[in-house]
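sorry for the late reply, my laptop died twice this morning and i had to redo everyting from scratch. anyway the thing you sent over, i finally got around to it. pasting the sequence first so we're on the same page, its 348 residues, then the predicted structure underneath. double check i copied it right bc i was rushing
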Amino acid sequence: MDPNLSQSDDDQSQNIPISDWQLANHSVGEQFSTGATSNSLEPSATIVNPDSVASRPAIRADEYRRLLNRKIRRMYPWSVLLFVAACGSTWYVGGPVYAAGVMGILLAHELGHYIQALRYRVPASPPMFIPMPFLMLGTMGAVIVQGAGFANRKALFDIAISGPLAGLVFAIPIAWWGLQDSTVVTIEPSQGALILGDPLILKWMYKAQHGVLAQNQEVALNPLLFAGWVGIFITALNLMPIGQLDGGHILYTLIGRKAHWVAYGIVGCTVAWMVIQQDPSFALMIGLLYAFGLKHPPSADDTAPIGLFRVLLGWLVLAFVFVGFTPFPITAQQPTLPAASSQETSAS
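ok and here's the structure:
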């Protein structure tokens, strides 16, 4: 445990390095928008005279925290309502088993972030789920609204990495559990099929359960296996080292501002790939990343040490992108014969 966590609430609020400019301009930000200017004022550890110039940043930081907490308290009823709505939308598209699996994975992911935010006393809302009954997945995941300027490098790392780790603790076993009751189907060229791309980790699991598949064979998705596929793919997507994604936070704590160039490179290559393949699958996500910014804002203290263990863990978790992501998440196979156009199979 960080020794600073044992301080009283007042002492901790005094040590928040937030400048006058930040206090005047920061508002509650989107998930993990933990930006703070690197030249923040460092207030005294003890307030002797509340009217002194040195004490003003600490007092305003305390006011800022109280303001955020009031806003966050008003979000709890909405959080419950959106969670129920997301449960309903995922039930609608995939049934109760799928809903339980995918919502369990997403809830674990968001609680991983939330609990770490509580641990470091970073003001954060409960998870705000996004129901989407007209999409194949039934939801667009969830976000946590977090106050800006409170997390240093160490806190930022722990908050960012805990979500993917918690989600994978559920996603991988759920996928394996669903795989035990799965079947292999043969998809003929005359059939219409909606085929989900297989990340490398799922290919390993398929081979362990069913052996080597023929070229025209696929593992048919049951609700539990589909929930595991969604959890693995979304986790890998969220670990892309770009901007405000979990991977962007993790990479920033590892290499600092050099992470900006990595983000530019990945986005540039993705855009080029979409143009060459004439596949706009990731256009919406690229647009959202641009809207929120490809650069990662500084933490409250970029010099805070994170230790060798966190460095190794960070690179290991980022490497999950290579085994959990697929550039072709959904492929629609068109039937070659008009008579077979009504036949459609959902498989992975």
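The chain has one domain: 3-347.
thats about all i looked at so far, will dig more tmrw
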